[in-house]
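ZP: hey, is the S-adenosylmethionine complex queued? I don't see it on the tracker
AM: it wasn't, my bad. submitting now with these inputs:
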Amino acid sequence: MTEIKDHEFAKFQSFIFDEAGITLSDAKKALVSGRLAKRLAHHKLGSYSDYLKLLHGRSEPGEVQIAVDLLTTNETYFFREPKHFDLLKQLAREATQQGRGLRVWSAASSTGEEPYSIAMILAHTQGSLSWTVLGTDLSSRVLRHARIGQYQMERASNIPTEFLRNYCLRGTGEDAGTILVQRELRDRVQFSQVNLHRPLPALGQFDIIFLRNVLIYFNNETKRQVIQRLLGHLRSGGHLLIGHSETLNDINSTVRAVSPSVYMKP
Ligand SMILES: C[S@@+](CC[C@H](N)C(=O)[O-])C[C@H]1O[C@@H](n2cnc3c(N)ncnc32)[C@H](O)[C@@H]1O
C-alpha cells in the first residue's frame, strides 16, 4: 500500500478544513490514508500527491465531494442521547396544546436516524398539526441513504416498539433484515445539502435545532462561526441541542444553558 507522507497529510488537513471546517489532528494520518486508498486505486494513482493534484485540478469535478464524503465521520443511531427526545416530547406537547406545529432542524443529520427519530416523536405528539423536520448534511452520500430511509434491522433496536409498529415497515424477500421508514413519515422529512462552514441558504426560523456530534470536529473559531450562523435561524425562545460530550463553554455565545447540552435563545 502507498504510504502517505507528512507533507501530503498536511495538505489533506488543509483540504478538509477549507471544505468542511473540520480540524483533523495529526493522529488521524492512518485514517486519512486508509479512507482515501481506494480512490488512489480507482484512479490508478501512485501517490497521495497525485491524488491531491487531481482534487485541485478540473478533470474530475465530482472527486471533491467523494473525498469529503470519505473524510467525514457519519456514525449515528436512532434515539441517540435519549434525554433530548424526552425534552422534544415535552416541547411538542406544549406546542400541541397551543395548536402550534414545531419546525425542527437536524443540522448534521448523517444517514437520517436523527431526523426520523424526531419525526416519530412529532407524528406521535402533534399528529396532523403542520410540524416539519429538515435534515441537512454536507455529505451527499449520507443524504442519499437518508432519503431512502431503509436501515438494517439491528439499527432499529432503540426505536420504541410502538413507533416501530406505527412508522416502520419490516422488509420481506430481498429486503428481509431491514426496516423502511413509512412513506407518510418520510414525506414529512425534507433533506438537503447544507455546509455549516459556509453562509447558510434561506432556511427560515426553527423552534428547535439539533446540532449534535459535529462540533467535536471543529476548532473553537469554526464552532463560534457555526453557532452564530445557526442562531440566526433559531426563533427567540427556541432550543439548541448539542451532543452530550460537546460544550459551548469556550464559545462566547448569546444562548442560555438550560442543562448540559441544551441551550435556549433568549
Ligand atoms: C457523527 S455524525 C452526527 C450525526 C447525528 N447528528 C448524531 O448525533 O447522531 C456528524 C455528521 O456531521 C456532518 N458534517 C461534518 N462537517 C459538516 C459541515 N461542515 N456541514 C454539515 N455537516 C457536516 C458529517 O457529514 C456527519 O454526517
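AM: back. The pocket of S-adenosylmethionine is lined by residues 20-22, 72-76, 80, 108, 110, 114, 137-139, 142, 195-197, 212-214, 217, 243 (CB under 6 Å).
ZP: great, adding it to the tracker
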